[in-house]
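A.,

Following up on our hallway conversation. Structure tokens first:
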């Protein structure tokens, strides 16, 4: 019989490998689905459709903002830069994504 601490460590390593294989956003997607199920299923099931619409609209806006930044600044990706340039590229990307998300949130 193995030590429970070793079993927990092995389970965490398997989970981390799945997250690494699935991409950067898999953990956030899982958290969002869990939160949607919690809000829609238990708190107010009558508004589940509207919650789903808002979440999908804002998620699409985040993806579009990320894509806009990659298309507009194809030669200055934050992971390819160092120092101040990296910080500024990360700030630029966050600002573009935030602007697109706010714009999508204001749309009916």
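Then the amino acids I'd put at each of the 108 positions:
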């Amino acid at each position: 019989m193995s030590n429970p601490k070793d079993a927990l460590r092995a389970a965490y390593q398997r989970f981390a490998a799945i997250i690494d294989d699935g991409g950067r956003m898999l953990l956030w997607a899982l958290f969002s689905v869990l939160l949607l199920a919690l809000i829609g299923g238990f708190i107010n099931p009558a508004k589940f459709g509207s919650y789903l619409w808002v979440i999908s609209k804002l998620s699409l806006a985040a993806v579009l903002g990320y894509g806009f930044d990659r298309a507009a600044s194809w030669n200055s990706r934050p992971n390819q830069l160092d120092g101040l340039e990296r910080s500024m590229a990360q700030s630029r990307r966050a600002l573009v994504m935030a602007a697109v998300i706010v714009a999508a949130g204001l749309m009916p």
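The radius of gyration is 19 Å. Curious whether your intuition agrees with the design.

B.
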